[in-house]
Design brief:
Strand order of the largest sheet: 1-4-5-13
Oligomer: single chain
Number of strands: 13
Number of helices: 16
Radius of gyration: 22 Å
Shape: globular
Distance between the termini: 34 Å
Mean pLDDT: 93
Low-confidence stretches: none
Strand content: 15-25%
Order of helices and strands: HHHHEHEHHEHHEHEEHHHHEEHEEEHEE
Length: 434
């Protein structure tokens, strides 16, 4: 088998066999096939696409290139959730204890964030003492005991994907549905869950800005998951404006605690109920979505979800007192209000631009080496469609510096007020099961 023939075949729009796909993935991972040949193949895939069978084969070849997490020792149907990213996306912090409170096991592998704010692990580490450096044995034991645990990603999970992504990044082949879908799903499948719920974002703060592109990506990922034996579905949700009110690590943890008490923002609560109900049904704990939604809402109001969150934090060394005393979380010394310059309705709050403003404060990483300031960020008081009066605060800036003029300029450029009509965007666009 020659790499030249594989490149030529895909260039001509022909289907690659599973053996050919495994050949180039294994060869590239072990260094036998050079970057320039894989670059040529990636560009051919970019233009010629891949069939559903090819996408599944590519995903499994990447899964098999490194470690795979064996969760068979965990009792019950294991579920996982993946979001394609966004601004103020605190869903994992809420969903993990919420579905676990219904005895749905959630064994979560998470990473650190690169971009607007930290990843799930960064956010959780806002809680003093919380750590994810636990052995696989302890991880499995905690999920069996508490139904929930979070661990850092393995260093050797899908090494082929890491190499391919680095190459895609410099060869203008990142934005390719088969390559994006196989990249995401390889990590999810290698993580060992039986069922996967995908939250595919669309809008200004999402990777897929266009709804049709988001639907295409969702279909591709669901198809891959179901083809390789993982019960997979997707929800397409809005990210044209930030989710919830908080943007920033400790601020998002505080908002997650409010939500677990039943007092969270309406959009964040609804998205968590929507995603969680799918997870509960996949795990066989409810007959249908409506029953699952009712069960989840009940546990948000009866204290069971919050109690599970405390247990989760404590079991991984965290100070569970934050659930009752959020002021124990890191707090920035300076708070600056952003007053509206005119009266009217909020027409736009461009999600990725607000995320950039939070990163300018130190809430996110510009590079892998950047240090995150867990205390800083933004707390919105208004969302798209809300009425605001001139001089009224649109949001509060939490910072560790008194002068935030540059951030203020960025925020005013990212928020627009109209004297005409403005309506909140739809939160949930559709669900995809095949």
């Amino acid at each position: 088998m020659r790499m030249y023939d594989i490149i030529e075949k895909k260039r001509n729009g022909e289907k690659l066999s599973s053996e050919e796909i495994k050949f180039f993935i294994d060869g590239y991972t072990n260094g036998a096939i050079p970057d320039y040949q894989i670059s040529a193949l990636l560009m051919a895939i970019y233009f010629q696409d891949m069939t559903e069978a090819e996408r599944a084969d590519l995903t499994m070849a990447m899964v098999e290139s490194g470690d795979q997490i064996d969760l068979s020792a965990i009792e019950g149907f294991k579920v996982d959730k993946h979001s394609t990213g966004g601004v103020g996306d605190t869903t994992t912090l809420i969903l993990a204890p919420l579905v676990a409170s219904l005895d749905v096991p959630l064994a979560k592998m998470s990473g650190r964030g690169l971009g607007h704010t930290g990843g799930t692990i960064d956010k959780l580490e806002s809680v003093k003492g919380f750590h994810v450096e636990i052995s696989n044995e302890e991880f499995i034991s905690l999920v069996n005991e508490n139904k929930v645990a979070v661990i850092g990603q393995s260093g050797n999970l899908t090494p082929a994907d890491k190499k391919l992504y680095s190459l895609r990044d410099v060869t203008a082949t990142v934005n390719s549905i088969p390559l994006i879908a196989s990249s995401i799903m390889s990590k999810k499948i290698a993580s060992g869950a039986d069922g996967i719920v995908l939250d595919v974002k669309t809008g200004a703060g999402a990777f897929m800005k266009d709804l049709d592109e988001a639907k295409e990506l969702a279909h591709a990922m669901v198809s891959i998951g179901n083809r390789v034996g993982r019960n997979t579905m997707a929800v397409i949700s809005d990210m044209s404006q930030p989710l919830g009110f908080a943007i920033g690590n400790a601020l998002e943890v505080r908002e997650a605690i409010d939500t677990l008490k039943g007092n969270g923002p309406a959009d964040l609560t609804e998205l968590c109920i929507t995603l969680g109900s799918q997870m509960v049904v996949l795990a066989g704990k409810a007959q249908n979505i409506e029953e699952a939604r009712n069960m989840l809402r009940e546990n948000l109001t009866n204290g069971k979800a919050l109690a599970k969150f405390k247990q989760f934090l404590e079991s991984q060394g965290g100070d569970a007192r934050v659930a009752d005393n959020p002021e124990l979380l890191p707090q920035a010394p300076y708070k600056t209000e952003l007053p509206a310059k005119s009266s009217g309705k909020i027409e736009k709050m461009i999600a990725d631009e607000l995320g950039t403003a939070a990163m300018m404060l130190g809430a996110g990483r510009a590079t892998k080496e950047s240090e995150i300031d867990l205390s800083v960020g933004l707390v919105l008081h208004k969302k798209v469609g809300d009425t605001v009066n001139a001089g009224e605060s649109i949001l509060t800036i939490h910072s560790n510096q008194e002068n935030v003029d540059e951030v203020i300029d960025k925020l005013y450029q990212s928020i627009s007020i109209t004297q005409g009509k403005a309506e909140a965007p739809s939160l949930i666009y559709t669900t995809i099961n095949e």
